[in-house]
Amino acid sequence: MSLDEYQKREFKQVGTRVRRPDGVDKVTGRAMYGADATAPGMLTGRILRSPHAHARIRSIDTKAAEALPGVKAVLTGADLPAQEDDFIRDVQDNCMARGKALYDGHAVAAVAAVDAATAKAALKLIKVDYEILPHVTEVDVAIKPGAPVVLAGRSLENVPAGMSENVTSHCEFGHGDPAKGFAKADRIVERSFRTAATHQGYIEPHACLASVSSDGKADLWCCTQGQYFVRTLCAAIMGMEASQLRVTASEIGGGFGGKTTVFIEPVALALSRKAGRPVKIVMTRDEVFRATGPTVHTSMDIKIGMAKDGRITGAEAHLRYSGGAFPCGTVDMGAQAAFAAYDLDNVRTYGWNVLTNRPKEAAYRAPGAPQAIYAVESVIDELCQDLGLDPIDVRLKNAAKKGTKSSYGPTFPDIGLVATLEAAKKHPHYSAPLAEGQGRGISCGFWFNFGGNSCVSLNINTDGTVGVTEGNPDIGGSRASISLMAAEELGIDYDRVRTIVADTSSLGYNDVTDGSRVTFAVGLATIKAARAAVRVMCERAAKIWGIDADAVEWKDGAAVPAGPNAGKFPPMSLAEIAAVSFETGGPIAGHHEVNVDGAGVSFGVHIVDVEVDKETGATKVLRYTVFQDAGKAVHPSYVEGQMQGGAVQGIGWALNEEYIYGADGRLQNPTFLDYRVPVASDLPMIDTVILEIPNPGHPYGVRGVGETGIVPPLAALSNAVSRSAGIRLSELPMSPPRVLKALGGS
Amino acid sequence: MKSIPVSTTINGDPYEFLCAPDETLLDALRNRLGLTGAKEGCGTGDCGACSVTLNGRLVCSCLVLGAEAEGAEIATIEGMADGDELHPLQRHFIDHAALQCGICTPGILVAAKSLLEKNPDPTDEEVRYWLAGNLCRCTGYDKIIRAVQAAAAEMRGA
Amino acid sequence: MVKVRLWGSLRQAADGETEVEVKAKTFKELLDRLVETYPGLEPQIRRGVSLSLDGVIYREAWFTEIRPDAEVVLMPYMTGG
After folding, report:
1. What is the residue range of A567's domain?
2. A515 with C78: Cβ contact below 8 A
3. C51 contacts C25 by C-beta, under 8 angstroms
4. pLDDT tens profile B61-84
5. CA-based, 20 to 30 A from B136: which of A70, A214, A499, B105?
């Protein structure tokens, strides 16, 4: 995609706060989510999970379960095929263990029975003979030679010899010579940080309904961020052809990256194939926590040198991430994002991925970036304090801008960081007085944003309304945004457009709803599909008028003669052209299929005020403001919603949320009571300032907005808490016991 | 286990169903009566997605047994609108973009309605504490609080 | 010839260089030439790479044209959440 897509224009509909098309269904309880699907003759599927962090499965005896009346199928890893491809094998082995259980909660067997009570009873009859193996759940332990090996033989060629086999990959980014940079510094701060694994925490547990018929055709309904990717994975695991497996995405009750892969879907399909009946599996919350993807947990060392005037002279980061029991590349993105906000001559990041006996990491909003940027922004704040400098001024002094060679290699085109920092600096929040004991923190954040494969079909109905068919589950209002862009391009009212999300048999491949891509990439495909339909409508008008198609143009929702030489005809509206479409050549449609590139990177700056209760260690968030470069905000309310939601997930990450493992390697807090996500009474209003710096890679200047918002809160909170408490904290979450411990240690 | 026959009133309509002694009201509503508007997010009373009222009292239906519905008056999200006329809370949730994925929305609407029946003019803090048992992971609660207050103002005739 | 910037950990596969030159007019040609010239890069390229062209990241797009003076940076294949 070229960078000349963007054309400045006056918008009539884009930028307005219309009602979302799925609103009524969602406020009346009518919307169908993953667990709401049923099928005649449906069985209930349940999964048996390992109570051990690491154990060899010597044998599984399923005879008694199979003999229980009402049980229709029992499944173990032995029922699934051997896979050659590492990636597919990891996904499959994570859905159903083979040989070894790799973490507490790892699936080892499954049953399908006539009802939930029978399925539950059957699970108790399955006898698994485990040989318990030594386990390791902490990245700093797993990285050491001699640590228990989670999976052998998975280290990439880039891992130096002599390291633990748990180290699966290594990466290095940067330019210049940090040592030279440090030599020029007036002050160097070197600190180590740790961040706990957190869960995406979507309120809707994973759910699916699979129906495989004896002729090999299958249907799968599930809550997912990407039905096409679900099809790819399930077809590979089931040995099916893609055309024979139709996947329909239900409404989705939150995902944040966690529903970009499969956990129960292949199990339900395999059970359905065995039982010859539809099988529904709905996870419990305990299963969601224990067996679906949290983020990586990390251990990081950061060293930054700064001159007295605030200029960063050298920067270095060592990042050790663990994405659980299977290899993942999240540290690569963290290592690239760590210093992306700054224009640096001497910068280097090193990253290591390490296996531990924890569930397989799944993507979570800007995967890998919040952790590394938390550590970097914490050190910058400490340097500001040490040198008596204003934190925004220092960031402005070092801010990446157009022409900056980024810390991950490319030279930035037009970016919005300076504008975002300037907006933060002049905002009343930044200069508002703080009371005694309160602290203010700021942080920058960055995310790449992506485009990806997108297909859109746009049908002009004979009554002058328009149907848009796209293939990305709507996780935060995207159907409204897509309808707005179609309406804008066609010049008709938003209310005349209805956008639906298609199943995998109805449209070509669409990448997952991730990477902040949908409004950007599907929006681009929608605009181009609308333009294709407009071309057809202009041709029809030209035929009716008996003039050349080139002599007709589209203006304000109607075909008009392109100039005085084209002839004098009154404008012919979309509805008028549509009404005679059968007579003028047939139904009118436009479509566009593309792998979109040219997503614009996005920056955010967050300001937060807190007060730490030194008696209890609890942190009260008093005021919060988010500044983010969104490109054109298609539906400003939902842009604000992304910024607010990201900020609050980040607040939870910073203050409370963590995976806590016991010495036995078992997860100790797999409930919402003990894994505490932010609740309404924890929070103030989250103020937002949207900066609309157009993305040159999109016709309307749209950037992604979904992910950047979770990046700055970690350091913003840590910096605020550190300033309020008068002591630097270097571990997340800053839960009350940890803050108290830090205060006691001062 | 022998099933228990239950006669109850849901959203003003009489219902009869059979349920197992250990079956939750949530499961009975969803699986036996087709009232899937209440959602199960946790099954332990921590998320509030299954909120309904039982004899006027706000409860997590995952913590109530189906058998306890005997002779009771239950209100669920399905009964909140009057025909095709949305309740002011429902309307303001749409107008204020107070939902993103929408999975928590039925529970939050039921809880908010219950609050406004007791306290038609709550402070923001009162709304936040009342809704502290209803988790929303998408919105950061900001627009939810605003929507509840806008609906409260309309209902007071303010 | 096109100058391609590699990330640090690929240096060992490219004779210790982080900037290499290959003859290519498109991304596809560039990836093919890189593998021919530096076979050590093949495993990473097979696993997936993104390419930044004048500051814009492309994840696939074989036939994207590369001008000789363009800035080309090889990056790991990127995904989001």
Report:
1. 451-596
2. yes
3. no
4. 999 999 999 999 999 999 999 999
5. A499
